[in-house]
Amino acid sequence: MLQSIVVRLAGDSGDGIQLMGSQFAVSTALSGRDFATFPDYPAEIRAPAGTTFGVSAYQINLGGDPITTAGDAPDVLVAFNPAALKVSLPMLQAGALIILNSDSFTARSLAKAGYEEDPRENGTLDRFQVVAADIGHFNLEAVKSFGLSKSEGGRCKNFWALGLLLWMFGRELEPVEAWIRRRLGGNPNLCDANVAALHAGHAFGETAELSAALPQVTTDTARLAPGEYRSVTGAEALALGIAAAGELADRPVLFCSYPITPSSPLLHRLTRLQELGVGTFQAEDEIAAICAAIGASYGGMIGVTSSSGPGIALKTEAMGLAVSAELPLLIVNWQRGGPSTGLPTKTEQSDLYQAVYGRNADTPLPVLAASSPGECFDMAIEGVRIALRHMTPVILLVDGYLSNVSEPWLIPIVEALAPIESHAAPDADSGPSARMLASQRDPDSLGRPWITPGMPGLVHRTGGLEKDYVTGHISYDPDNHQRMTEFRQAKVDAVANFIPEQRLELGPDKGDLVIVGWGSTYGPIYQAARRTGVSFVHLRHINPLPANLGELLSRFDKVLVPEMNNGQLATLLRDKLCIQPVSVCKVSGQPFRIAELVDRIEAERRGDAA
Amino acid sequence: MLQSIVVRLAGDSGDGIQLMGSQFAVSTALSGRDFATFPDYPAEIRAPAGTTFGVSAYQINLGGDPITTAGDAPDVLVAFNPAALKVSLPMLQAGALIILNSDSFTARSLAKAGYEEDPRENGTLDRFQVVAADIGHFNLEAVKSFGLSKSEGGRCKNFWALGLLLWMFGRELEPVEAWIRRRLGGNPNLCDANVAALHAGHAFGETAELSAALPQVTTDTARLAPGEYRSVTGAEALALGIAAAGELADRPVLFCSYPITPSSPLLHRLTRLQELGVGTFQAEDEIAAICAAIGASYGGMIGVTSSSGPGIALKTEAMGLAVSAELPLLIVNWQRGGPSTGLPTKTEQSDLYQAVYGRNADTPLPVLAASSPGECFDMAIEGVRIALRHMTPVILLVDGYLSNVSEPWLIPIVEALAPIESHAAPDADSGPSARMLASQRDPDSLGRPWITPGMPGLVHRTGGLEKDYVTGHISYDPDNHQRMTEFRQAKVDAVANFIPEQRLELGPDKGDLVIVGWGSTYGPIYQAARRTGVSFVHLRHINPLPANLGELLSRFDKVLVPEMNNGQLATLLRDKLCIQPVSVCKVSGQPFRIAELVDRIEAERRGDAA
Amino acid sequence: MSEKLTAKDFASSQEVRWCPGCGDYAILKAVTGALADVGAHPESTVFVSGIGCASRFPYYVETYGFHTIHGRAPAIATGLKLANPDLDVWVVTGDGDGLSIGGNHLVHTLRRNVGLKILLFNNEIYGLTKGQYSPTSRVGTRSPSSPGGSIDTPLSPGQLALGAGARFFARAIDTDKPGLGHVLREAHAFDGTAFTEIFQNCIVYNEDVFASFTDRKDAADTQLHLRHGEPMLFGKDNSKGLRFNADTFALEVVEAAASPGNVLVHDETNAVLARLLVELERPVALGVLYRQPAQAFEAAFYAHHPTGMKRTKRVAEFIKGPNSWTVSS
Amino acid sequence: MSEKLTAKDFASSQEVRWCPGCGDYAILKAVTGALADVGAHPESTVFVSGIGCASRFPYYVETYGFHTIHGRAPAIATGLKLANPDLDVWVVTGDGDGLSIGGNHLVHTLRRNVGLKILLFNNEIYGLTKGQYSPTSRVGTRSPSSPGGSIDTPLSPGQLALGAGARFFARAIDTDKPGLGHVLREAHAFDGTAFTEIFQNCIVYNEDVFASFTDRKDAADTQLHLRHGEPMLFGKDNSKGLRFNADTFALEVVEAAASPGNVLVHDETNAVLARLLVELERPVALGVLYRQPAQAFEAAFYAHHPTGMKRTKRVAEFIKGPNSWTVSS
Ligand SMILES: Cc1ncc(C[n+]2csc(CCOP(=O)(O)OP(=O)(O)O)c2C)c(N)n1
Ligand SMILES: Cc1ncc(C[n+]2csc(CCOP(=O)(O)OP(=O)(O)O)c2C)c(N)n1
Ligand code: SF4
Ligand code: SF4
Ligand SMILES: [Mg+2]
Ligand SMILES: [Mg+2]
Question: What pTM was estimated for this model as a whole?
Fold first, then answer.
């Protein structure tokens, strides 16, 4: 019985790989295994069939917990065509099992994939166990009776392959079948065809001559904490988190956004949560989006906006207005590869500089980061909580690929969470002095009352010009500007008094080496730290940093900071804590592999790191 | 004979104070004195007459060199109305000489200024020498014969007062007279009236009963280096510098901008330099402005854009495109008070974070800063030199008020400056491989050839998607992205190999304390360091920092960093040099006073600083 | 606040800081007057503006006010209107703020027909930044940024608005109290985006650019005050009228007496006519040039939101998704 | 490169990466064909685009190409054209790139009349970002961001362009080779901003939105192919024609035979007519709807630049200013 196993599905953009993968993940979950996934698809909507850059892949690591990454090297590959094989081969575990869709290995498709000769014949695959099956052919056989067009029929093959996979892993067909019926209910014939393909693939597994080669696999089941679970992606969890924040604050939410990869899935999700008092507005651009969100906050709703790096860049001027007018706002940044348009579909963590330092003037604001799909839920709530408590815009950084990555998620009980307080409007004694109430701040949070148009007797003016600390009127007074600048910094610093102390994820609380991570690198760092026994600190509050972080890190001789950028958190730690961390930078658009981190940790400990 | 003297002229926005001041500065220059000025006017175009927030002032410090600031406390104040007196009084040197326009002290104007009682009678002015003159009345007398309307005639009073001032300082009237004739030549009558007022004011100085009270002042003359001088503002010098860069690179310059305070004067200046091969384009917004400049650079001209903080925020996305496409560009940021609209007419240094860190993704670019009006000329050239050598956008930070501040400037000999090289387009062997030439980089500067549309045989495509390091084609390859990210950083780092070593401005090359400054704080720090004998390092290259800076600073026990922001350079030094500087922050929209720096330095040395 | 408020009640305590003689003063008086006329409530009225001299406006009105950033007021006001459709939201902008940097937000606000009353103070110049030419400045305008005269063909606010799908377009002159008061009241009554261009005199940087038709003495010949359903008459004793020439597709001036029959009657719902009126230079068409109501954006937004932005379910009902499973200890 | 180039010579070596069946393929063919027809030179031709499926276009044309950032292509192209007016500069954009985020740059480019040929691929959807509704999507469009149907009234590219002061507006269908080829050649010949809307079929996210008039079988009745100076006839054997109704200010369809006299003759210089044509739904007006040449912006720019951007003086002649003085040692 294996502790865990890594499976990779790869084919053409048109082959329905992502759908097949997500269904396999659900079945994995229902079978009681822990898992982590990594969808990996091309930038093009539908890249030309058969090309290597058109390959769409879905990787899943499953088994006994804790599974925190999609796995370094696949143990099983299902390759729908030569291009998929070519792209995936270098990643495979030695001796991995490869299931080939053999009737896709035509001269033409080999050429398209850039194979001079057939890899099945020139020894390329010797180091692996290969199981070849005419998936295309068998699938068409299975659905022939439904009289679908050839292309329609062909599109069932992902379910045929899924059936085979489910047999391999000894899974129930029922949940997948139910899903197909829910999804394709509208078209009974197509629906039945897909179900038939699923069953055919499963049945095929039993056939004697194959099962010799095709082992049945069983892995540990997870020892997850008891409770109710679901599979969740970052976009799903963040959408639910935003809605939950609205519920906890008892305010409607207006989400204003302009589509951009990989932020759009959040917009799409939120359009489905209307009964939770969530509205969505698709603006003409990112500037209009954040401005509409600011307008909504000014009007008393919870304004939220979302984008990725290039779009966030356009929002930076308006963020300054929200800081100056002391309005709450949640700004989500799904970080992708840059600079400029860069690698839109690849993940990165390179917008930390922009989030912490990326505005004109002294314009500090709180910055958070989510570590996993499920944590997007918690961080959305935390972001809104801080925004309303301190009356400030808050930036939530999410590594782009978390949008589509899924993991099992212990479903939170929203009712059990602390309500989100906001600063009630003071009693209006109307008259001129009422206006000043808008700038009477809570001594601890430094948040001002959330006075919104429509409230009688509290009529006042605000805006982006410097305001008098007391009256809120325009002020060009030098000392007042000094005071306001210090106040704005103090307000962000004050957040540190409301957040939990930084804790260790793993390892001894002092020693020779501690790893500091943030965002989605949690997964690989967790495993690498566990294997090497070093200590591990993971940050969710980026600005301000937890008050005790400096002291905590000072107990270690060396601080190692792996990040998917060119050393941005390391800069922040030097700036705020005056320590000298060692950066481990990976900017390839790919997450860290556990092995590379383990190697690096060991090298650092031997002291022979470059 | 005084070493130096500080004069402040203050009146209504409508009183022509700025014009009077700049003419007095020119006369000061021609008299062989060193000087520094500080114009200080309201945000409103024409604030209501007589109000304190409508006061426009012009301060000048003049005398023996080196004069590097407009002076802490005025020795002489010319106050055109009660509001001007009220605003200026707190700044004055004890025992200062105050020249009052007494017939402006009506009950109404006193009330407007917020005086309950007449400050001339309630002892408020006891600590000063007061000379009252009915300037308004005498001026009208002087111009009566020209039959001007009352308001027209009244508007000559700044020249009447200037005449008086020129008498006080024993200056020639001729240059001012000549200027009036040049400027108002079109209207001979008005012209003669102003000249008459000038002479009347001067003559008035001689009149016995006054001169008793009104001393004639003479100060040291400056020991400036021999050569030809002029008075120059930052906007003038920067405009000339941009034109000179075009001349040195032998390329036309296209300046694309959208008006904003205090950046607009640069645009206005450049529209007057057309014969130098400079074109200006007023775009519909800042984004269009930088994009048009990028288009111009792509087309082979030197693209330049300029704005201040809020506008620069809008340009950050496009900066990423210029970095990705490896195109040269000069981006000037006239820093003003923020956040948001903030204090548009007040100066600040708070856009350093934005310049160095303020972009999405890993998008480094070189950053420079000018220390004085005259240095804007040198930095414009340096900026273009770096942009063309390394094929990168460059940001030049200028403290907003330098735009209008003037100083004597040793006129540079442009012919004597090193030409600006750009990477010539390679010979086209046309054919497919030609395309690759666009990404063949110079080994030292890492700049690529500047291939521009119109060149035969070098046809290629570029853009904001990640590009293959070798071919320049779109590349989603992980290792290539890693390589390109490192390359972009290496390119900016390479700038350090081409810039001068950091030198000391003043003081011993090691010791207990060194002050590190940047931008316009040069002036007050220079004086404070001189008076206290501490060492002084001033940065012109902000990113990358000069290679030897770390070593240089390491020779001192304490590094003091005064800046007009909340500690932004200090962050940069912690990040890049891992040192722990002591910040001295002033965010009041006002430059440092020498005295406050001296006090702070002494406190630091005594070790009793907060 | 039951008893009727007067214009003075809508004047804030803030010292007004425009140049003496600026057209904005007259507009401020007209707006506070109109607010009193329509019985507006200070607490449910909001003025949102961008940046510019015009955009200083909110500080001077005793209602809620938000002086935002350059060009973005329509976008911010859209969010505000969605958050609280019961508010009376006015947007004050300038020819630079609204047509230069903010042009796109204006266009999209108009096509969406968001319930905002947009007042564009057109002085054909960037006032606050000291007088550079603007998108409405005429070709040849000499300014600090165009000493040799501007070369950009100006935008016509009316044509752009109609091209964007505006459903209400009106025009008035800053100092024309009755005319301005009329369009302000009509704008207030319109359910959707009411876009009003106000010819505003910047005495410092663009004095008298509109004098050719704002001069009182020959106003009769230079101004056409439109009223829906009434013949387009102007000139001394309404001696002149407008006729449509179907061959040239153009409006032409006729002696009203001569041809009473074919003097055109103003139909404010006719978009083709509206565009012809926008183009007219002598006389200049004032009043409501075009009005064609349609459902306002916020109304459609709430109509399409099954619960009208109310929370009718709890997250708990959504959070489990289709496939949840239980791990028991 | 003296001998005439063919369409193939203008196809780059890059693998085309649009979805199989995307309308962009047909447009690419038509453009490379038109480039050959007009005898364009690869080295003096530039394609500038923003971001979107449409904006991938420059990679596939063997000329200079700049794939810039979302919505900004017109601004970048303006700078390029000013830097080198001799270049043939084409801008390729989409309904999102050009009308949503980039709307303002488009408007200002049009009013300035910069010498650019702007091709707007209108598929009424955001293709690259996986199918959200766009500013040209019809009300009720169901998309990932509008599952209940969009509520925003769409923009009409033609109306917006004409409202902004466009001097050339044409339309064509992606797969209509002759019609598209014709407008591309006319656009190329136009000196100023030539704005062309191309109805483009996104088979993945918005299949057949234009089918009602692009279907070949009843094209005769659904398409009106305009030619300046020719009567507006369409339908089988040109049996139908258009007439202008001066009372309703609208175009109406008439039996050509019945009333030969009053079938309208296309006058592409008539802006009023152009707007009526833009509105037509059956038939849809194709070809050059409006063309009214005027000096191009870059021409005015160089004409107003005394030295045409040449350096005729040296900085030394300017640097001293009016008041310099000499300090002698
Ligand atoms: C992002 C940004 N860009 C530029 C400016 C500078 N700016 C302020 S107002 C203005 C134009 C004002 O013109 P208009 O809108 O016509 O208003 P007016 O002053 O004429 O009433 C400009 C360019 C700014 N404040 N913010
Ligand atoms: C600043 C920025 N915002 C958003 C995006 C995401 N984005 C890329 S293309 C696009 C819209 C594409 O639609 P369209 O212009 O119609 O082109 P199509 O794909 O339909 O051809 C969007 C929203 C981006 N790349 N950059
Ligand atoms: S500059 Fe012009 S628009 Fe601005 S306040 Fe003065 S007169 Fe009015
Ligand atoms: S998504 Fe639509 S527009 Fe984009 S390439 Fe595919 S078919 Fe064409
Ligand atoms: Mg204006
Ligand atoms: Mg589209």
Answer: 0.95
